[in-house]
Protein backbone atom coordinates (compact mmCIF):
# COMPACT_ATOMS: atom_id res chain seq x y z
CA UNK A 1 0.00 0.00 0.00
CA UNK A 2 1.36 3.49 -0.82
CA UNK A 3 2.60 5.32 2.26
CA UNK A 4 3.59 8.78 3.44
CA UNK A 5 7.07 9.73 4.64
CA UNK A 6 7.40 13.03 6.52
CA UNK A 7 10.78 14.75 6.39
CA UNK A 8 12.26 17.76 8.13
CA UNK A 9 14.65 20.21 6.47
CA UNK A 10 18.12 20.82 7.88
CA UNK A 11 17.70 24.49 6.90
CA UNK A 12 14.49 24.57 8.96
CA UNK A 13 16.40 23.43 12.07
CA UNK A 14 18.49 26.62 12.04
CA UNK A 15 17.49 29.02 14.81
CA UNK A 16 19.38 32.19 13.79
CA UNK A 17 18.69 33.60 17.24
CA UNK A 18 20.75 36.76 17.82
CA UNK A 19 23.71 36.05 20.10
CA UNK A 20 23.04 32.31 20.34
CA UNK A 21 25.29 29.80 18.54
CA UNK A 22 23.62 27.22 16.30
CA UNK A 23 23.19 23.66 17.55
CA UNK A 24 25.76 21.36 15.89
CA UNK A 25 24.48 19.63 12.77
CA UNK A 26 24.87 16.13 14.20
CA UNK A 27 22.73 17.07 17.21
CA UNK A 28 20.07 18.45 14.89
CA UNK A 29 19.97 15.16 13.00
CA UNK A 30 19.47 13.34 16.31
CA UNK A 31 16.69 15.73 17.35
CA UNK A 32 14.84 15.24 14.05
CA UNK A 33 15.05 11.47 14.47
CA UNK A 34 13.83 11.72 18.08
CA UNK A 35 10.88 13.87 16.98
CA UNK A 36 9.64 11.03 14.80
CA UNK A 37 10.47 12.26 11.30
CA UNK A 38 11.31 9.78 8.57
CA UNK A 39 14.08 11.77 6.91
CA UNK A 40 16.13 14.93 6.60
CA UNK A 41 16.39 17.18 3.55
CA UNK A 42 19.57 18.98 2.57
CA UNK A 43 19.13 22.34 0.85
CA UNK A 44 21.99 23.47 -1.38
CA UNK A 45 20.58 26.98 -1.19
CA UNK A 46 21.54 27.02 2.49
CA UNK A 47 24.71 24.86 2.40
CA UNK A 48 27.66 24.67 0.06
CA UNK A 49 28.27 21.38 -1.71
CA UNK A 50 31.23 20.69 0.60
CA UNK A 51 29.16 21.41 3.71
CA UNK A 52 26.43 19.11 2.40
CA UNK A 53 28.93 16.33 1.70
CA UNK A 54 30.06 16.50 5.31
CA UNK A 55 26.51 15.49 6.32
CA UNK A 56 26.54 12.26 4.28
CA UNK A 57 27.63 9.91 7.14
CA UNK A 58 24.94 11.27 9.46
CA UNK A 59 22.07 9.79 7.45
CA UNK A 60 23.25 6.23 8.07
CA UNK A 61 24.43 6.88 11.62
CA UNK A 62 21.14 8.41 12.74
CA UNK A 63 18.81 6.36 10.54
CA UNK A 64 17.10 9.07 8.53
CA UNK A 65 16.13 8.99 4.88
CA UNK A 66 17.77 11.55 2.62
CA UNK A 67 16.38 14.20 0.31
CA UNK A 68 18.19 16.89 -1.67
CA UNK A 69 17.16 20.28 -3.03
CA UNK A 70 19.47 21.77 -5.66
CA UNK A 71 19.79 25.32 -7.00
CA UNK A 72 21.69 24.78 -10.27
CA UNK A 73 23.04 27.92 -11.90
CA UNK A 74 23.75 26.17 -15.21
CA UNK A 75 22.73 22.94 -16.93
CA UNK A 76 25.84 21.05 -15.81
CA UNK A 77 25.67 22.54 -12.32
CA UNK A 78 22.92 20.02 -11.60
CA UNK A 79 25.20 17.00 -12.08
CA UNK A 80 27.21 17.20 -8.80
CA UNK A 81 23.95 17.56 -6.88
CA UNK A 82 22.66 14.36 -8.49
CA UNK A 83 25.85 12.58 -7.39
CA UNK A 84 25.34 13.81 -3.82
CA UNK A 85 21.72 12.64 -3.95
CA UNK A 86 22.93 9.09 -4.61
CA UNK A 87 25.27 9.31 -1.61
CA UNK A 88 22.44 10.20 0.80
CA UNK A 89 19.84 7.88 -0.75
CA UNK A 90 17.61 10.68 -2.00
CA UNK A 91 14.90 9.12 -4.21
CA UNK A 92 14.81 12.26 -6.36
CA UNK A 93 16.25 15.78 -6.42
CA UNK A 94 14.08 18.86 -6.04
CA UNK A 95 15.28 21.49 -8.52
CA UNK A 96 14.99 25.22 -7.91
CA UNK A 97 16.51 26.21 -11.22
CA UNK A 98 18.57 29.40 -11.25
CA UNK A 99 18.68 29.64 -15.04
CA UNK A 100 15.72 31.94 -15.67
CA UNK A 101 14.95 32.93 -19.26
CA UNK A 102 12.42 35.73 -19.52
CA UNK A 103 10.15 33.84 -21.93
CA UNK A 104 8.42 30.48 -21.61
CA UNK A 105 9.87 29.58 -25.01
CA UNK A 106 13.34 30.21 -23.65
CA UNK A 107 12.67 28.14 -20.52
CA UNK A 108 11.51 25.00 -22.34
CA UNK A 109 14.97 23.91 -23.60
CA UNK A 110 16.48 24.61 -20.16
CA UNK A 111 13.97 22.31 -18.47
CA UNK A 112 14.54 19.65 -21.11
CA UNK A 113 18.32 19.86 -20.68
CA UNK A 114 18.03 19.37 -16.90
CA UNK A 115 15.74 16.39 -17.52
CA UNK A 116 18.37 14.99 -19.91
CA UNK A 117 21.13 15.33 -17.28
CA UNK A 118 18.87 13.62 -14.72
CA UNK A 119 18.29 10.70 -17.11
CA UNK A 120 22.02 10.40 -17.76
CA UNK A 121 22.69 10.20 -14.02
CA UNK A 122 19.73 7.94 -13.26
CA UNK A 123 18.21 10.28 -10.65
CA UNK A 124 14.65 11.62 -11.10
CA UNK A 125 14.11 15.34 -10.62
CA UNK A 126 11.11 17.42 -9.62
CA UNK A 127 10.84 21.15 -10.24
CA UNK A 128 9.71 23.05 -7.17
CA UNK A 129 6.97 25.67 -7.36
CA UNK A 130 9.33 28.32 -6.05
CA UNK A 131 9.96 32.03 -6.45
CA UNK A 132 13.22 33.45 -7.87
CA UNK A 133 13.75 30.49 -10.17
CA UNK A 134 12.63 29.11 -13.52
CA UNK A 135 9.18 28.25 -12.08
CA UNK A 136 8.83 31.65 -10.39
CA UNK A 137 5.45 32.51 -11.88
CA UNK A 138 2.46 30.18 -11.69
CA UNK A 139 1.09 31.19 -15.09
CA UNK A 140 4.41 30.56 -16.83
CA UNK A 141 4.74 27.24 -15.01
CA UNK A 142 1.34 26.13 -16.29
CA UNK A 143 2.57 26.78 -19.82
CA UNK A 144 5.75 24.79 -19.12
CA UNK A 145 3.65 21.86 -17.90
CA UNK A 146 1.64 21.96 -21.12
CA UNK A 147 4.80 22.06 -23.24
CA UNK A 148 6.76 19.37 -21.34
CA UNK A 149 4.56 16.39 -20.38
CA UNK A 150 7.40 14.64 -18.53
CA UNK A 151 7.99 17.60 -16.20
CA UNK A 152 7.13 16.63 -12.63
CA UNK A 153 6.69 19.01 -9.72
CA UNK A 154 7.49 19.39 -6.03
CA UNK A 155 4.59 21.31 -4.57
CA UNK A 156 5.23 24.28 -2.28
CA UNK A 157 2.17 26.40 -2.97
CA UNK A 158 3.14 29.05 -0.42
CA UNK A 159 5.27 30.63 -3.14
CA UNK A 160 2.39 30.88 -5.60
CA UNK A 161 -0.01 32.37 -3.06
CA UNK A 162 2.49 35.23 -2.68
CA UNK A 163 3.43 35.24 -6.38
CA UNK A 164 -0.19 35.83 -7.49
CA UNK A 165 -1.18 37.81 -4.35
CA UNK A 166 -4.12 35.47 -3.85
CA UNK A 167 -7.00 36.69 -1.72
CA UNK A 168 -9.79 34.85 0.06
CA UNK A 169 -12.18 33.70 -1.17
CA UNK A 170 -10.02 32.41 -4.00
CA UNK A 171 -10.94 33.20 -7.60
CA UNK A 172 -12.46 30.05 -9.17
CA UNK A 173 -9.79 30.14 -11.91
CA UNK A 174 -7.07 29.82 -9.28
CA UNK A 175 -8.61 26.59 -7.96
CA UNK A 176 -8.60 25.14 -11.47
CA UNK A 177 -5.02 26.24 -12.08
CA UNK A 178 -3.79 24.85 -8.77
CA UNK A 179 -5.50 21.55 -9.60
CA UNK A 180 -3.53 21.37 -12.83
CA UNK A 181 -0.33 21.77 -10.85
CA UNK A 182 -1.38 19.25 -8.19
CA UNK A 183 -1.93 16.66 -10.91
CA UNK A 184 1.79 16.83 -11.72
CA UNK A 185 3.12 16.95 -8.13
CA UNK A 186 5.06 13.97 -6.81
CA UNK A 187 6.07 15.48 -3.45
CA UNK A 188 4.76 18.20 -1.14
CA UNK A 189 6.24 20.81 1.19
CA UNK A 190 4.59 22.12 4.33
CA UNK A 191 4.33 25.87 4.73
CA UNK A 192 1.31 28.19 5.08
CA UNK A 193 1.22 31.57 3.32
CA UNK A 194 -1.12 34.46 2.63
CA UNK A 195 -0.93 37.03 -0.15
CA UNK A 196 1.75 39.08 1.63
CA UNK A 197 3.72 36.64 3.79
CA UNK A 198 5.26 33.39 2.60
CA UNK A 199 5.35 31.75 6.05
CA UNK A 200 2.64 32.23 8.65
CA UNK A 201 2.64 30.97 12.25
CA UNK A 202 0.42 27.90 12.08
CA UNK A 203 -1.53 28.35 15.31
CA UNK A 204 -2.56 32.00 15.13
CA UNK A 205 -6.35 32.52 14.74
CA UNK A 206 -5.90 34.82 11.74
CA UNK A 207 -3.97 32.05 10.00
CA UNK A 208 -6.82 29.53 10.19
CA UNK A 209 -8.53 30.40 6.86
CA UNK A 210 -5.20 30.05 5.07
CA UNK A 211 -4.40 26.81 6.88
CA UNK A 212 -7.75 25.42 5.76
CA UNK A 213 -6.98 26.43 2.16
CA UNK A 214 -3.65 24.61 2.21
CA UNK A 215 -5.10 21.54 3.92
CA UNK A 216 -7.64 21.31 1.12
CA UNK A 217 -4.90 21.57 -1.51
CA UNK A 218 -2.79 18.91 0.19
CA UNK A 219 -5.77 16.57 0.47
CA UNK A 220 -6.46 17.00 -3.24
CA UNK A 221 -2.80 16.47 -4.10
CA UNK A 222 -2.58 13.36 -1.94
CA UNK A 223 -5.73 11.97 -3.57
CA UNK A 224 -4.37 12.57 -7.06
CA UNK A 225 -1.02 11.01 -6.13
CA UNK A 226 -2.63 7.93 -4.60
CA UNK A 227 -4.71 7.41 -7.74
CA UNK A 228 -1.55 6.89 -9.83
CA UNK A 229 0.80 5.39 -7.20
CA UNK A 230 2.07 1.83 -7.25
CA UNK A 231 1.57 -0.38 -4.22
CA UNK A 232 5.08 0.17 -2.85
CA UNK A 233 5.41 3.90 -3.60
CA UNK A 234 6.12 6.47 -0.89
CA UNK A 235 5.06 10.11 -0.97
CA UNK A 236 7.38 12.59 0.75
CA UNK A 237 5.91 15.53 2.66
CA UNK A 238 8.67 17.93 3.68
CA UNK A 239 8.10 20.25 6.64
CA UNK A 240 10.08 23.33 5.68
CA UNK A 241 9.38 26.19 8.02
CA UNK A 242 12.45 28.34 7.52
CA UNK A 243 14.32 30.58 9.94
CA UNK A 244 14.16 34.34 9.67
CA UNK A 245 13.59 36.10 7.33
CA UNK A 246 11.04 33.45 6.35
CA UNK A 247 9.89 33.32 9.96
CA UNK A 248 8.17 36.51 11.12
CA UNK A 249 10.01 38.27 13.95
CA UNK A 250 9.19 41.01 16.42
CA UNK A 251 11.12 44.17 17.30
CA UNK A 252 13.44 42.07 19.49
CA UNK A 253 14.47 39.96 16.50
CA UNK A 254 12.84 36.85 17.94
CA UNK A 255 10.31 34.70 16.12
CA UNK A 256 6.61 35.05 16.92
CA UNK A 257 5.97 31.32 17.09
CA UNK A 258 7.73 28.02 17.81
CA UNK A 259 8.70 26.63 14.39
CA UNK A 260 9.49 23.18 15.77
CA UNK A 261 6.00 22.93 17.25
CA UNK A 262 4.42 24.35 14.09
CA UNK A 263 6.22 21.76 11.96
CA UNK A 264 4.86 18.96 14.14
CA UNK A 265 1.33 20.35 13.67
CA UNK A 266 1.79 20.31 9.89
CA UNK A 267 3.25 16.81 10.06
CA UNK A 268 0.22 15.55 11.98
CA UNK A 269 -2.16 17.23 9.52
CA UNK A 270 -0.34 15.60 6.60
CA UNK A 271 -0.53 12.16 8.16
CA UNK A 272 -4.20 12.58 8.94
CA UNK A 273 -5.07 13.80 5.45
CA UNK A 274 -3.10 11.04 3.79
CA UNK A 275 -4.97 8.42 5.82
CA UNK A 276 -8.35 9.99 5.06
CA UNK A 277 -8.18 10.47 1.29
Automatic annotation (TrEMBL):
Keyword Isomerase attached: yes
Keywords noted in UniProt: Isomerase
Domain of life: Bacteria
Keyword Isomerase assigned: yes
Molecular-function GO term, any one: isomerase activity
Descriptive protein name: Xylose isomerase
Species whose genome carries this gene: Zavarzinia compransoris
Amino acid sequence: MPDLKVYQSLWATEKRTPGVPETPVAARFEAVKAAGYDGMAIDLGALSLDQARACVPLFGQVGLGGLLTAFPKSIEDLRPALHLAKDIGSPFVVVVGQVMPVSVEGSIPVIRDWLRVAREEGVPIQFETHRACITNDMFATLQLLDAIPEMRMACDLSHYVVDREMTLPLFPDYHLQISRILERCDSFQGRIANRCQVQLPVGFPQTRPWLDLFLGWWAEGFRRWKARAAADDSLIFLCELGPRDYAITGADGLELSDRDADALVLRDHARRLFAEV
